[in-house]
Amino acid sequence: MPNTPFGERLKRERELRGVSLEEIAKATRIKTDYLQALETEDWARLPGGIFGRGFVRTIARYLGMDEDNILAEYAIARGTPAPTTIAVPRVVKPEEPRMARARQQRTRMMFTIAAAVLAIGGSLEYQRIENKRHETPSQVRAAAAPVSSPSVAAASDPEEAAIPPIPKPELEQPVAAKTTAPDVSSANASPYLEMKIEAGKDARIRVFADHHRMYAGHISAGETKRYRARNTFEIFSSDSGAVLIELEGQTMPPLGPSGQPGRATFTRRDLEAGAGGTH
Question: How far apart are CA 267 and CA 273, in angstroms?
């Protein structure tokens, strides 16, 4: 870890990129007071729970810094352990022998049927060739002789000869299928809002998407939940400082004071309004 204190390093990285606090606040929706508190390490001015870590991660992402390193430095500066991620190996269930045998039997049956079809077709073709080789000249001439038309044979009757032949109906021309160009006017526009809820400690929450309840129950520390809505999210938490909320990747303000119940409603307008404060 560098010897430079966390707050000074954060400020130096911002100044090296020529970015002001106001620019970061506008882009990340984090209050300028919170940004100043991070650079001066005035932890009392920051909201409780996991909001400080969420702010640091958002700032590091905006400045192009290594998120894991800066979060580790932040944890050391505040005297809190850095979160760890445990990779759980994927367990692949072995295939049952009975299923494997059944698939092998189906495969053999398909090959057997295909071979039988080919054998029958070859036998019929061979028989046709042999019959053609043994045809007599009279049979060949009889096969080539034209067949008299019933209408010509019936012309010997004068009354029937006076009846004009029925004309053959003209074949209908196929109508070209109408093609409709796909409407791509809104193909690139997402109709949904994405919300992410990250828990810094245990709490009970309720989540509504477009006024439909999506979840009501317990959320554990380190757990993450994601939801989608077209217009509106409503969230309730037994501890406002226990959950960090991101809307379309932007950090939302706390639901209320840490340690107290809180609620908030988020819409598309919250992506344009400034951060901070309760709803």
Answer: 10
What's the structural domain count of the chain?
A: 2
Assess whether pLDDT exceeds 60 at residue 194.
yes
Give the pLDDT mean for 265-275: 76
Minimum mean pLDDT among 76-85, 113-122, 254-263: which range? 76-85
Query: Domain of 20?
Result: 6-78
Boundary (domain end) residue, out of 78, 108, 138: 78
Helices (H), the chain: 6-16, 21-28, 32-40, 51-63, 67-78, 97-133, 137-144, 150-153, 158-161
According to DSSP, the residues that pair with 194 across neighbouring strands are 228
Chain CA centroid to CA 160, Å = 75
147 phi and psi angles, rounded to 5 deg: -90, 130
Measured between alpha carbons, how far is residue 64 from residues 18, 68, 199, 214, 249 in Å? 13, 12, 25, 34, 15
